[in-house]
Amino acid sequence: MATCQKGEKALDYNDGRIDLETVVIKDEISRCESIDELRENIFPRIKSQQEQWSKKINEIIEESGLTKSKFASICNVSRVTVNKWCKGAIPKNREMFLKIGMAAGYQLEKMNQLLQRYGRYPELYSKSLEDCVCIFVLTQEYGEETLNKYNYILNKIKENIIRSNQAEQNDITTELFDIKLSDIKNEEGLEKFIVDNTTIFENAYNKFYAYVKMHIRINYQGFGGSVFELAEGQGWSSSLRQCISAINQRKWYPTRNKIISIGLHLSMDHEQIDEMLELAHMEALCAKNIFESVIMFILDDADLNNMLDNESEEYDPDELCIYAREVLEQLELPEIDSFISELPEMDEDEG
Question: By residue range, what is the domain housing residue 336?
């Protein structure tokens, strides 16, 4: 299916050559029978990504001519966080890579390389509102103010944009959309461009919205009349409820980890979460990311044990999340604390 092809393209980071090691690691994850086996056989082979990132971020800071404290200030993080990056800790989400690229003064080509090669995220996509604004600011000469300008322009547009009630707008190719965006010379022109193309931004988002709604309907029709009833019954966190509310209002894409969390809550399998990520213009789950390798193991193991069979009489919409929490609590990973907080706990009388 298309998702698999997308995932294969996502491995193409070495001058056009498919990263066969990633393919092998992904296959070996699917054959792991326990978290201990995953930790013993897979984790040691993924450290190279951390080493590559450590080398890259140190180069970025050195080439920027900024102190670590100044670089941290521009990225709106602590000096401690930057020190962790320099020792190999990989930023938690795509948004942070965007901040790093803007702090480094990157233009479009280098930003896309940073996202794809070191973050394992997709390149900037002009039909996503946030990425559209980011592409614009990268073409301007804002210097150290690039990130502040990005936040200012994006927030201003989000506050003032009016959802379109106009007739369906004919879509245009992304290539032509990129060309039109590159012709914009100032902030006023950008705001007009975004307002004029509101339906195109919405249409790109609506595919993601429809996919989430479809899985709510398929997997949870017997457990509640709406996603809000489902959230109440499963005890979803306030941040995840806000995320779902934004999806219902057809706002902008959640962060990568939020999408993964939604996938677990909706009992999606590995391919379905990959497809949801693709619809949000993100790469498939990455076998070379330790955290995501664990998520891949959880999904593959859950599928083998029929946790995702919504036609089974024993199907429990909480089972995948509870199992994911049990596995993740055995590990010490940077993303764990905030991610686990959104997963339901097993009732004591069930333990």
Answer: 198-351
DSSP 235-255: T--HHHHHHHHHHHTT-PPPP
Which pLDDT belongs to residue 165?
52
Whether pLDDT at 329 is above 60? yes
Q: Are 295 and 287 in contact (CB under 8 A)?
A: no
Residues 48 and 136 occupy one common structural domain: no
Name beta bridge partners: 14.
17
Rounded average pLDDT over 315-341: 81
Question: Distance of alpha carbon 19 from its chain centroid, rounded?
Answer: 21
Q: Which band of pLDDT confidence, cut at 50, 70 and 90, is reported for residue 7? A: very low
Among the listed ranges 6-15, 28-37, 39-48, 117-126, which one has the minimum average pLDDT value? Answer: 6-15
**Residue (of 135, 173, 169) closest to 154 by Cα position:** 135
Q: Please give the biggest Cα pair distance in the chain.
A: 63
Based on the domain organization, do 253 and 342 belong to the same domain?
Answer: yes
* 286's tokens: 């990455």
Percent of the chain with pLDDT over 70: 82
Q: Which phi and psi angles does 14 have, rounded to 5°?
A: -115, 75
Distances (CA, A) of 127 to 91, 197, 198, 205, 219: 24, 9, 10, 9, 30
Residues 132 and 240 in one domain: no
Beta-carbon neighbour count of residue 294 at 10 Å? Answer: 24
> Do residues 317 and 219 share a domain?
yes
Give φ, ψ of 17 to 5 degrees.
-95, 135
Mean pLDDT of 214-231: 67
Does residue 288 lie within any of the structural domains?
yes
Two tokens at 136? 């614009």
pLDDT surpasses 50 at 351: no
| pLDDT in the model for residue 337 | 72
Do residues 76 and 99 touch, judged by C-beta distance below 8 A?
Answer: yes
Query: Could you tell me if 238 and 245 are in contact, meaning their C-beta atoms sit under 8 angstroms apart?
Result: no
192 and 48 in a single domain? The answer is no
Residues 179 and 219 in one domain: no
Q: What SS3 state is found at 127?
A: coil
What spatial distance separates the first Cα and last Cα of the chain, rounded to whole Å?
39
Six-digit token string for 287:
């076998």
